[in-house]
Amino acid sequence: MARKLPLTHDYRLVPAAAAVWTTAVAGLFLSWQAGAITGLTAGAIGLTAWRRAWWTKTTAIALLISGPVAAAWVGGHVLRAESHPLRQAADEGRSTTLTVELTTRPKGIRAAGFGGTQAGVENVVIRATANGAQLVLFAPADRWRDLLPGQEVTVKGTLAPPRGGDLASALLRVRGPPQNPRPPPIWQTWADEHRDGLRQASAVLDDEEAGLLPALVVGDTERMVPRIVDEFRTAGLAHLLAVSGANLAIICGAVYLLTRRLGPRPAAVAALMALVGFAILAGPEPSVLRAAVMGAVALLALVLGRQRSAVPSLATAVLVLVLHDPALGGDPGFALSVVATAALVLVAPKWARALKKRGVPNGLAEAIVVPMAASLATAPVVAGLSGQVSLVSVVANLVAGPVVAPATVLGVVAAAVAPLSPQAAEFVTHVAGPAVSWLVVVGRQASAVPGAAVGWPDGWTGAIALTAVTVVVVLLLRFKKTRTLVVAVLVGGFVVLVPLKVVAPVWPPEGWKVVSCDVGQGDALVLATDDAETAVLVDTGPDPGAVDRCLKTLGIKKIPLVVLTHLHADHVGGLDAVLTGRAVGAVAVGPLREPEWAWKEVSRRARAHGVRVVEPKAGERFALPGLELEVLGPRRPPVAEDENTTVNDYSLVLKAHTRAGRVLLTGDVELAGQAALLGERDLNAEVLKVPHHGSRYSLPAFLKAVRPRVALVSVGTGNRYGHPSPHVIDVLRAGGALVLRTDKDGDLAVLPGNRIVRRRRHGLGQVVQRSLPDPRWHAGSRVGVVAEELHGDAVAARRTQARFRLLHLRNTRRRHARRHVQGDDHARAAPDECRDDGRRVRPRRGARVRRRPADRAGGLGRLPLQRAQGGSPVAATDRGVARHRGGGRTARGGRLAAVPAHRLASDGRDRLVRRERLGDARASPSRKEVLNPVP
Q1: Global pTM?
Q2: Can you tell me the distance from the alpha carbon of 497 to that of 487, in angstroms, rounded to the nearest whole number?
Q3: Helix (H) or strand (E) segment spanning residue 302
Q4: Span 870-891, pLDDT tens digits
Q5: Distance (Å, rounded) from C-alpha 610 to C-alpha 127?
Q6: What region holds the Metallo-beta-lactamase domain (predicted)?
């Protein structure tokens, strides 16, 4: 028997393809000069290699020709985009009206939702051409999401500079609907009908499967459930949600296998027709076009069996695509396609042959190795894009691989027959349902594994770093001397690091009673009962994935009551994830059923899961083992106003009696709601869920009445709302509370004995809170952020020998100045203490103040910091807010007139808070600190 020679690949065109790609990257991300220099350098290397016979003539000549061609072609495109008149107009921010031709389908941008704004797709991004320039349109989704590539429309908007990395000359922020739209090409209409038919046929499945099937087949992620997207990303299955060469390889391979009895040529023609039809169905976008080319290469490698021509075909595809559209060189999707296809033609055949030798059937072997090879090869690119590395990717793809091909083929069949027979399409969709459900289960279980994904640097740095690590490990594994060492290091790392990461810092901590989940800009708080795996959930946050992860890590499987304090998106967005896979007794909502869309969504979700909706009244109690809930408010009758402030003030307010103490749950109540709660007989609680994410609309009198030991602020990192307000944090800390924030501390657990455990993203940390401090020291023991900032400014001014000027209150100067004595309530110093001797601050004339070196920040904390606008200082009292009437002599006292709490929201003046230290002769004089509302 003749010995079978090992298969060798032809790499002669690889240097030329790499040179063209590198030239495009340099031109797009640096400048056209950098692209030209890179291409010319590649040509010079090719010339040197030809003369000195470093490589074969074909390799050297290909590099010699492709380098200068890429330099001229890429440099010319980049220069044309940078010098186009629209770029100059974009730099100036001009408004314009253009007639554009769309080149891609609208892609929705999903918003998380906050307040009365519903989560979902609000805007779309479309690529278009106008006057020989490429544009990116940022348009409202209402009237733009139904447009198709090839249509010409007239659009009005404002130009802005593009983000870079492509050939777009400008970004156009569209105003209003498209005008004068022309009909799309006939093949685009045909493709859109089939895509709509697939979406309608998928509606017979559950919501998660109905959104996943179109994404799996044609990359349509518009109806994807956000929770599924997050789980697939963590499990390393995100590549299944985009059209790639694997999709086309599966379709063309299935057609070829079905028609191969007709002969090789008819089967190849049928596969080619399927390739063209699928490209039209998915849309002639750059991602689909490159997937078609890469799918053709994969078809040659895996179906036709001509593995030797696979690498030259791949290199030729890169050359043609990048020279045709240099913007592909900077597209992450292009990199994913190239790397995945290279894995398909180089790695997948070897793995498939290995499986066949072990008795795996032919079609099943390819179905298994194709997604596995693609996921491993694309891991560096995915890590650079997402900033994390999935440790369960290989296993998840191995388990999910066998059903990817059947689900894809059945989805294409359903799309093909949908316009002819919707009933037949629904039947095919039902047949594909179990395969799609299996993918959902695999993604959910894989993402639930502790440590399923680890953080990694994002961007080019992360991608290059993971590539280097992978290459080094593979090279070391090829040598026998280092193979044992590498295996030992990897095993040892898993044995040591995994327990330290997952096991040692146990979460949740034993005996936890309250957990504030880190769900971003929203609320989700869990109250434990004495029954294992049972808890009450108050609000569900804006993101289904975040609250689901929190409940999974806590091991909660039974929820007798889900409380939605009010129906804003950042409190009800995760309800569907809470109801899925858990036993829920009831959903409690407040009396105000606004916004209307949120009430309809909550009712629909509850009915779909067979959960009843209840409306608790003020004064009702819910008793559970080890937990009692008391409803404090609202007590006012509902007023149907779909405004954020009204909805917030009608939040359900509860007091929970737990084994860790009393917990006051305030929802998003603002000034009017807090003022109404001041009439309660007892608001005191050991733990306070700070109202409205620490918003500035909080009454100091309300916070003083609660007097918490621990204040939990649920807030998102870098939110654009200014939450939490530093002035509210000052008031809480001045009252002796330990303030913890989910954006900085992560998940927060409260345990009996005033213990707090924080589950940060990089580990666990424990903080022990001692007993409540003596009330006499509440005001003097801490200095607010405002005073600290002023103290820093004063020190900097003194070091630079500059004068530090302070604004003063109107008419605060006494007629007869006198020396400031200890314990005096007067905030001004004597005239002889205003010298600038290096230890004192010389204030503005008319506000003489002395700052003692022993109490620098405290001295600045009692300065009159700002002028009260309108001549009427506003002060916080125990019963609300009061305004001084009279000539403005605030230091002499006077009559205070009550100001309704609901009017304070529109009052733009500073709020003066007066706090005194009591009962200590050593205490410094009274401090005054102005709380400035953040606009």
Answers
A1: 0.67
A2: 15
A3: helix 286-302
A4: 333 333 333 443 444 443 333 3
A5: 44
A6: 521-717
